[in-house]
Design brief:
By secondary structure, the protein is mainly alpha-helical. It has eleven helices and no strands.
């Protein structure tokens, strides 16, 4: 009888080389870039459109979404997209997730940089499509751009982005840990669900503070298309916060939670 494989039997895969130039000659690398581009485009289209819809009906008690609906839209879309492209590009759809994966050596520097570029490009085009389709209400409802809400300090906004991104990136690294798949064969199937649910929960907590960024591409794409001072005044928060949160999550996963750290 075959012995059941446990996490203790599993050997951590070798870290990906920092400069893995051989990727540049592989079609799978470019296919992954296309997947990240299209996924981020679709994510921005649905998410920004949802925010615009909420703000344009916020005074209508019967016709609009609430924070719960927005959180479901963001979390549900990440679940769908991560499930669709997880086996092609790992389903990052977020520069902070890509940065965390780089720190734990799951992706190369070349792949990480190119992922971030196509994620930002996809985000810009996705937000641009929303502007084209919703010209009448787009400008008057803030273009779905992230800002620190009135009544909150920049420090509070930064803290919300750091903690929220930590929750997301830590969930991604834990849910996609190869040792988890060694213990449970359905773990890879459940990973997109747990990641999407993490996005949902963070949105519930931080929408009132920053509108919830936790994804620099999402914040950048909306800011570029809206392109008003309000969108740029606090924009640094939506890069610095997520990258700090991703760094802490990567270090925590690597040196505390990962069995291979020892």
């Amino acid at each position: 009888m075959a012995r059941e494989v446990s996490a203790k039997d599993y050997q951590d895969p070798a870290p990906v080389p920092i400069l893995h130039v051989v990727e540049l000659s592989q079609w799978s690398f470019y296919r992954a870039l296309i997947a990240e581009f299209i996924a981020t485009l679709l994510f921005l289209y649905v998410s920004v459109l949802t925010v615009i819809g909420y703000k344009s009906h916020v005074k209508d008690a019967c016709g609009g979404l609430d924070h719960l609906g927005i959180a479901w839209a963001f979390g549900g879309m990440i679940f769908i997209l991560a499930y669709c492209i997880g086996d092609i590009s790992y389903g990052h759809i977020n520069p902070a997730v890509t940065f965390g994966s780089l720190l734990v050596r799951k992706v190369s520097l070349i792949r990480a940089v190119m992922y971030m570029v196509v994620q930002c490009l996809g985000a810009i085009i996705g937000a641009g499509i929303v502007q084209a389709f919703q010209m009448g209400v787009y400008e008057s409802n803030g273009g779905g751009a992230n800002t620190v809400s009135l009544g909150y300090s920049k420090g509070a906004g930064l803290g919300a982005e750091i903690i929220g991104t930590f929750v997301l990136v830590y969930t991604v690294l834990s849910a996609t840990d190869p040792k988890r798949a060694a213990k449970n064969s359905i773990a890879p199937v459940l990973a997109p669900l747990s990641i999407g649910f993490a996005v949902f929960m963070v949105h519930l907590a931080t929408i009132p503070i920053t509108g919830t960024g936790i994804n620099p591409a999402r914040s950048f794409g909306a800011a570029v298309i809206y392109n008003k001072a309000a969108a740029w005044d606090d924009h640094w928060i939506f890069w610095v916060g997520p990258f700090i949160g991703a760094t802490i999550a990567a270090l925590y996963h690597r040196f505390v939670m990962s069995a291979g750290a020892a």
